Every structure is written in structure tokens, then in C-alpha cells.
Amino acid sequence: MARQAVLLKDDLLDPVDPLLDDPTLVHLVRQCLATLSPLSRRTGREGIAPDRLLRCCVMKHLKGWSFRDLERELRSNLVYRRFTHFDAEATPDMNFIERRSSVPGGCPVQNTAIEADDGHPLLRDRARAAWHQWRDALAKIVAAGLKREEIRPDVDPKAVATLIISSLEGALMIARLERNKEALLTAQSHLERYLEVQVRVPGRSH
Fold first, then answer.
1. Closest Cα to residue 206, out of 162, 148, 136?
2. How far is the CA of 197 from the CAs of 82, 109, 124, 157, 204, in angstroms?
3. What's 148's DSSP letter?
4. Does residue 138 belong to any structural domain of this protein?
5. What pLDDT digit, counting tens, does each position of 37-60 carry?
6. Domain span at residue 76?
7. Using one digit for the tens of pLDDT, what is the confidence trace for 101-119?
8. 12, 158, 198 from 150: Cα distances, Å
9. Is residue 206 part of a domain?
10. pTM of the model
């Protein structure tokens, strides 16, 4: 099964995978966990490895999942188990992950681009690199559509990728604040119309 998982790909997760091995990010999560449970080292309570928690937070954020969704997908999907470094090991339940991801200020990766601008230039560089890889991965998909003449010739692949990511990121933030999916559904509807009317060549099959 492990060999099969290696062959499977996820266009959303693969670009950020190598960035999440960065020691600075993992150390930040470790510090947040220590703040959340300062007695855990002395009492020997079972915990979750910082790299695994980091990857769970990132995957939940990128996929727009609830914690229940995250728990279900982790248990049933080889690609997601590989991405989060659980592989063949047992995965924690939803409440376990949610308690340990509720670090002060929220998930550190989600807030890095906003909070690290002045105080943590190295983290800002890491967040910017992650953004560039995500944007470039989407832009390559659009560029491939241009070559197949499925996309209008005047379309800028990077501009399309930027609009898609910006719309989804904003909608995810509002959805978390409102505790519902209305903003996500609105963004989805807008993006579908935008891609159909302004990006795709009229008359081409989906």
C-alpha cells in the first residue's frame, strides 16, 4: 500500500509538501504546542508530532474541510496519510486534533503571511515561497489549457491563478468567522461563472 501511495498525486498538496519540512515552521508549531500544554513533557501525556499537526492544519485549510472531514479523510485516503506522515500508523480522532490545533492565534501556517511581515522575515519568506509554488502550480494548469486551445488566448495564467487563490482564501476566512459555508459557496459560484465566461473558449467541452 505504501508503494501505491507514492505513485498517487495531489495537485493541491504536492507543491507545498517539501516546504512543510522546513525546520523553522516545525519549530514554531513545537513552541505553540508547548504553550498550549506546558506540562505535557513532565506528565508524559500522549501528544502529536509537530510535523504531523502542521500538515494536518495545512491540509484542512487548503481543502476547506471541517475537523470531522479531516478525520474521515485521514482514515480512508493513502495520499493524505502519506502527506501528514501518519502512513500506516493510527490517526488521532477529530477532538484530539482540534484541541491541539487551537494554539494561540490559530493555525500558525494560516496566519504566517499576515503576522510575520515585520517580526519574522524568515517565516515571511517561507510563506511567500509556498504562495508562489501554489500559484505556479495552478498557472501551469491554465497554461496547458492554452496550448490545447481550451483557454482564451488573451488569458494570463498567473492572473487566473491569483484570482482563484485570493477568492478561496478570502472565502475560507469568512467561512471560519461565520461558522458556515455561505462565503465558500458564493466564491465557488462566482469562480465557476468567471471560468466559463472569461477564461474558457466558448463551445469547448469541459
1. 148
2. 38, 34, 35, 15, 12
3. T
4. yes
5. 555 444 344 568 889 988 888 888
6. 2-109
7. 554 444 444 555 555 556 6
8. 21, 16, 12
9. no
10. 0.55
